[in-house]
Amino acid sequence: MAKKSVASLQKGEGRSFAKVIKMVKSPKTGAYIFQEEIVQNDKVKDYFAK
Q: Is-above-0.70 flag for pTM?
């Protein structure tokens, strides 16, 4: 599925989006989990600032 979503970002208007992956510590177990989202290029810094 990851290949398909990344490939669709390369066509047409998709170039204004980026797939970002953020590592977050789970409050329940204390283990780290990875959150993946697709955001606009100009909002990438805001995503990581949260």
A: no
